[in-house]
Every structure is written in structure tokens, then in C-alpha cells.
């Protein structure tokens, strides 16, 4: 059972962050405005003792680099933030910098703000991600020394990055972590139905719709404008629908047990395993979307410990 703080935070997410189209219409919410409302909070970040933090421009992509002042390792944790392809990077991602650096043996943590909808649609975010990846290569970092971490739309973007590198015959990262990856724009997984009434972010309490009702409802949501006129079944748009071979890197997928996105996380892990790729699924019982990034309750801290261990294992064996 979830902890009391975990349950409390879930209800906070329901009250403040529910993006179900019915709720949005009822409360006359502006999804873009709401998702971007936290961006101005805590705009200044001061690195802890022993670390440096700087903002740079990578071919037009705002990028942040966090590293040890002395004896940094040659490892990198590349962070691909979430936010439904609508909001830019929030302050709480920076609070994970030191944790990721420690887990990677004093590695450098790189985060960036890719272009978002509605101003920009697919493939803008992928183009920006590839610019940052190419910049890392130009700095002398090696793909086998890079682990990516991501949540929600960032998980989708991670899969786009992997498929793009794979299709171009280029080396991929050593491993990838995806928290609650949003990777099926067709909403075809069964958890869209059976978790609809318990998902505090995407669902509505007390109602269990049919699969067709869910698809029809969510298709109207502003959350789906990021891919523009592209086919929502395109593997780059919905990586859960893609097929994979054995050349992909190991992945750790974490997801909340109460999420409507649960089944697509299960599908991705299953497909990787079928292809002979190491893939691990961690399900947080009773948890909600991307719960790990918040850190402040027991279930979030536990899943972050799992992620830390995964980074250490993949980078150092």
C-alpha cells in the first residue's frame, strides 16, 4: 500500500495537475498556461559546494551543464525532461543533479530545453536533442559512457533519440532510464480503461469508460498537439507500437501502478525483452505519473535509489 505522504501527494496531483479533457473543460483550464505556470518559479540555481553549474547555447538549444569542480569523471547523465511536449524544464529537475552526478561516479549532468508545442511540433524536439547529442560527441564524450534519464514526454523523446541513432547506424547511449514514458498516442493499452478511475493526473475518479471512449476523449486533448499532422501510429510518435532489434541499449522503465500509461510501459519492456535486450520494469504500487521526480515521499525516494543503482551498474559493471 502507498505511504500516507504518497497518497497525499497523489491527491495534490489530482487537484492541481489533472489534465483530463473533461476536467479541463469543466474548470475552464488552459492546459498550456497551466503546464507552463511553474516555469518562472525558482529561476536561479546555485550549485552545491564542489560543483559548477553553467548555462550554454548549443546551436540554439538552451543547455545546462552541472559538473564536479575537481576530477570529474568521463561519464555523463543526459536528462530529457517531461511536460507533455508543452512545458519547458522545471526547477525540480535541477534538484536531481547532484544525485545523478554521484551515481555516475562524479559524472557531468546535462539538461536542455527543447522546443515545445504549440509553437513547435514534431520533429523539433528530436532535432534539438540530436544537436545536444552531437555536441556531447564533439566534446569527446563517448556513447558508452552516457546514460539518459527521462520522464513522461522525455521518455518518448528518449525513444526517438534511440531510434534515430539506430536508423542512422550510430552508437547509442550505454543505457536509458524512463520514468512513466508517454509512448502510445493511440491510447490503445488496456490500462487506459482499467486505471482511468484511479489515475489522478489523466483520469477521473469513479468512471470506467470503454477503450473507444478513451480514444475519442483524449484525441481532443491539447496534450496531443505536439505531433502536428503526423500519423499518431508512426513509430517515432508512438514508440510503444514500434518493433526493436537486439542492438538497443538496456533500459529501466519505472511507472506508477495507478497510471493509465502503465500498459504501454509494460509493452515497451516486453518488446525489448523479446528482441533480446535487457529491460527492467519497476512498478510503484498505487503511484501516479512520473512520481519519482518529486523526491519528497518514500515511494519517490525508493524509485530514485533503483535508478541510482541502475546508473552505477551500467557505467561501472
Describe this structure in words.
The protein is built from 11 helices and 8 strands. It has 317 residues and is α/β, with parallel strands linked by helices. An 8-stranded mixed sheet has the order 1-2-4-3-5-6-7-8, with helices on both faces. Strand 7, helix 10 (262-274) and strand 8 (279-284) form a beta-alpha-beta unit. The protein is globular, with a radius of gyration of 18 Å. The mean pLDDT is 96.
- Taken from the alpha-carbon principal axes, the silhouette is globular
- Secondary structure: helix percent: 25-40%
State the distance separating the first and last CA atoms. Answer: 33 Å
What fraction of the residues are assigned to beta strands by DSSP?
15-25%
On the 0 to 100 scale, the average pLDDT is: 96
Cα-atom radius of gyration: 18 Å
Q: What is the strand arrangement across the widest sheet?
A: 1-2-4-3-5-6-7-8
Number of separate helices: 11
Q: Runs with pLDDT <50, length 5+?
A: none
Along the chain, the helix and strand elements come as: HHHEEEHHEHEHEHHEHEH
Number of strands: 8
Largest sheet: 8 strands, mixed
Structural class: alpha/beta
